[in-house]
Amino acid sequence: MKTTLWPHQAAAVSFARGRAGTLIGHDLGTGKSATAIALAEAWDAHRVLVACPLSVVGVWPEQIRRHSSLAWRVERLDLGGVAAKTRLAEQALRAERVMIVINHESAWREPFRSLALRTPWDLVVVDESHRIAAAGSRVSLFFAALGARVPRRLGLTGTPLCHSPLSAYGQARFLDRTAFGTSFVRFRARHCIMGGWRGPDGVPREVIGWHNMNEFEARLAML
Fold it and tell me: Could you give the CA distance from residue 123 to residue 150 in angstroms, rounded to a whole number?
């Protein structure tokens, strides 16, 4: 690294280095991208996928130039359609050390989806990982499938529980399936008290409270 990590960044690297999946839940402006870059170097990653909001795609090449001393090819995919982005990614993946940076909404769409699922990534980073919190969304389901195929996974967000404790599930499913399991229905039954309005089947559909939260917090801390 060209830069010296702050103590909280060094602590995050130390925590995550021996793990397969980790949530870096640091506040805005505290250098989450530098922490991720330090971990990519620590793991000697050669193929890295970064998924982030479209407005942030252009930030990652700047962060690599600022913090890393390694010869990365950083492919910034923020222009054109998904097919054009996929062609650029395929070309970039021929490089010795490459980082593909793409927005969340393009990552799960074909043909990039198929490329992502067959590429032997060393590391996948989901920046603003609360974007995959909705367990039933297509973007969350895609990263769940991708996470099962890669050896190292990072989530970066300052708002991990952006709506409620339910927001943890989609992120955990990508990062570490052992944290909350592989069934959202069982996760919700374990931690949600349901009531309020009922569907046609008479089953309550509204979350009116929470339980087993000590267990929830302990499992969240695993990430």
Answer: 7
- 92-122 pLDDT, tens digit per residue, is 999 999 999 999 999 999 999 999 999 999 9
Q: Residue 16's CB: how many other CB atoms inside 10 A?
A: 23
Residue labelled with tokens 């050390």: 97
Alpha-carbon distance of 153 to 148, in angstroms, equals: 10
**pLDDT value of residue 179:** 92
Query: What is the 3-state secondary structure of 105-160?
Result: HHHCCCCHHHHHHHCCCCEEEEECHHHHCCCCCHHHHHHHHHHCCCCCEEEECCCC
| Nearest one of 58, 74, 59, 12 to 38, comparing CA atoms | 12
Q: What's the pLDDT score for residue 191?
A: 93
**Would you say 175 and 139 are in contact if contact means Cβ atoms under 8 Å apart?**
no
Who wins on pLDDT, 199 or 168? 168
